[in-house]
Amino acid sequence: MTRENTKGGVVVAMHLLAWALLGFVLVFYQPLSWSVSLPAVFWVKQFLNFGLLAALFYFNAHYLVPRYLLENRIFVFILWVVALVILMLVVSKLADQQLEIRRHMEHIMPRPRHRGGPKPRHLIDGILLMTTLLVIGVSTSMAVIQRWQADARLRDTVEKQNITSELALLKAQINPHFFFNTLNNIYALSYTNVEESREATLTLSRMMRYLLYETQQDVAPLSREFAFIDDYIELMKLRVQSSSNVQYTRDEPVPDYPIAPMLLLPFIENAFKHGINASQQSEIGINAGLSNGELKLHVENHIFPVQNVAGVESGGIGLANTRRRLDLLYPGKHRLEIQTDESANTYTVDLTINLA
After folding, report:
1. Cross-strand partners of 283
2. Radius of gyration, CA atoms only, the chain
3. Closest among 208, 205, 202 to 178, alpha carbons compared
4. What local confidence, expressed as pLDDT, does residue 122 receive?
5. What number of other Cβ atoms are within 10 A of residue 213's Cβ?
6. pLDDT digits (tens, 9 = 90+) for 50-76
7. Helix (H, G, I), strand (E, B), or coil: what is residue 348?
8. How far is the C-alpha of 275 from the C-alpha of 273, rounded, in Å?
9. Could you count the other beta carbons within 10 Å of the beta carbon of residue 57?
10. Who contacts 285 (Cβ-Cβ below 8 Å, separation ≥6)?
11. Terminal CA-to-CA distance of the chain, rounded, Å?
């Protein structure tokens, strides 16, 4: 049995139990408390009223409320309610007359005599009127709440679909961004050192294997993500000048917490793009570690104007999209602090993600 079928069965059972309780109170409890033998027509009238109330409940919940109240046609809805209440009272009064309820009940509950003649009959059954209004009120409340819940579920479904589509798009944008940057790096290296360019090609092949297979899933093992970062940094070290100093440290071994793939690379890639200058001393510091289930990444680099030289591609698609991915994938579970120190001409990124 599916979850939907189970849920539907529970709802039907709840409705049956609620009507059984209401039916007992309305049909049986008070008459049985009189401790007298009641005629059959009395029970016919009771069940008739009960059936009309049940029909009124569902007609209001499934037709009037969705079609009029929830469509802001409140005046028409009120007219319908007034008409149904009047119809309920009229049908009940006609049933009294046709079944001759008063005549059959006189020997059980004789009418008291009043001075000045018999007491005039009530045109409106006050108890039935209050019961009818109560049933309509409960029916309206239930229908409105169900609509609110359905709308909330629909919004959640649409939001999840949008997030899934957006994450797929963001990841698709990040991967080509990295790929083209790295190809440019290897192209530049092939002019200066063929052997190192071959090693770089093998490293890129290993990295692309990770991109093709691991990043197709929603998460990847943290150890594989760190291995990918290791390869990337080693590849970038082959390109930087001797005047550049790249310091990279990370914890070892790494527990295999699941993490969204390609989430750390844009911050490191950004450091190499902006923190390397061929004619000036350049320093990049990268530290990654895990403590009590929290992944911490610290990246610090000098700031240089982006130069359109071999190995460096401007654009910044990866960093902007990574901010968005963090907001979507780890809401309330990450901290991203980015600071620019103008006096020291440094750019610092501190990222913390709770993976536990």
Report:
1. 245
2. 38
3. 208
4. 55
5. 11
6. 888 888 888 988 888 888 888 888 999
7. strand
8. 6
9. 22
10. 247, 298, 299, 300, 301
11. 34
The one-letter code for the residue type at 349 is V
Superfamily the domain 163-354 falls into: Histidine kinase-like ATPase, C-terminal domain (3.30.565.10)
- For the chain, the structural domain boundaries read 3-111+120-157, 163-354
Distance CA 69, CA 76 (A): 8
Three-state secondary-structure class, residue 72: coil
pLDDT of residue 308: 42
304, 274 in Cβ contact below 8 A? Answer: yes
Residue 312 pLDDT: 41
Q: How far is CA 335 from CA 266, 271, 327, 351, in A?
A: 16, 19, 10, 6
Looking up tokens 């033998």 gives 37
Phi, psi of 244 (to 5 degrees): -100, 140
Q: How many other CB atoms are found less than 10 A from the CB of residue 314?
A: 11
For residue range 15-38, list pLDDT tens digits in order: 666 666 666 666 665 565 555 566
Q: What are phi and psi of 286, to 5 degrees?
A: -130, 130
For residue 245, report the phi and psi dihedrals to the nearest 5 degrees: -120, 115
Most distant pair of Cα atoms in the chain: their distance: 124
